[in-house]
Amino acid sequence: MANIEAWKILKKTYPHAKYYLNFKTPLDLMVAAILSARVRDEVVNAATQTLFAKYKKADDYAGASVDDLLKFIGKVSFAGNKARNIVAACKLLVERHGGKVPKNMGELTELPGIGSKTANAILQNAYDIIVGVPCDTHVLRVAFRLGWTKNTNPEKVEADLMKLFPKSEWDKLPHVLKAHGRAACAAPDPYCSKCPVNKLCPKAGVKKRL
Ligand code: SF4
């Protein structure tokens, strides 16, 4: 099957693809993931470098004001909303979870600023708990162009990928597809002539793409 062949090639092309946000603890990851919505990874990583040096526990964030956090994350888009969500989420961590980031989807998605995609990424990257395929904009675009889905809605694309690939591949899919999306299958125009899977891709050379 073309999708399996293309997947094998992409895995070999990007053997070191990994989660793109810097973190050391599950709490770091939760904060970085909240900040990452509609922001380039580099911007988040630049902000969290100094933020994480000062804020290490949920208590630290829960006791902070939005203005305190804005000193560190001011360059991140929607910084005010995200700062409010981080403070509110950490207050709930302290009140309900002993300051720890929960390890299940239900409790994670009760936290402000955390939807199922973010929860998925936290479970996978902080706890090695694989329950799905978190689909960011690169994953959506590349999966669509490769013909692995006909959908553009993240939940539907995730469901399609979970049907198409065995669970053993779910953790690698977001990292590898994102790496390919950045290196070749870019938006708005991909570099199809340099793409290692262009002979297997139904959208190779096509002008109108997702
Ligand atoms: S051939 Fe082009 S559209 Fe298809 S995966 Fe490669 S870069 Fe993307």
Task: Tell me what you see in this structure.
The protein is mainly α and 210 residues long. The protein has 2 domains: 2-16 and 134-194, Orthogonal Bundle (Endonuclease Iii, domain 2), CATH 1.10.1670; 26-127, Endonuclease III, domain 1 (Orthogonal Bundle), CATH 1.10.340.30. Helix content is 57%, strand content 0%. It contains 12 helices and no strands. It has helices spanning 2-13, 26-35, 41-54, 58-62, 66-73, 79-97, 105-108, 116-127, 137-145, 154-164, 167-170, 172-183. Helix 9 (137-145) packs across helix 12 (172-183). The longest helix is centred in the middle third of the chain and has 19 residues, at 79-97. The radius of gyration is 18 Å and the shape is elongated. The two termini are 23 Å apart. The structure holds iron/sulfur cluster (SF4).
- CATH topology description of the largest domain: Endonuclease III, domain 1
Bulk shape? elongated
Percentage of β-strand residues: under 5%
Helix content: 55-70%
Name of the CATH first level of the largest domain: Mainly Alpha
* Distinct ligands, ions and cofactors found in the model: iron/sulfur cluster
- Report the uncertain regions: none
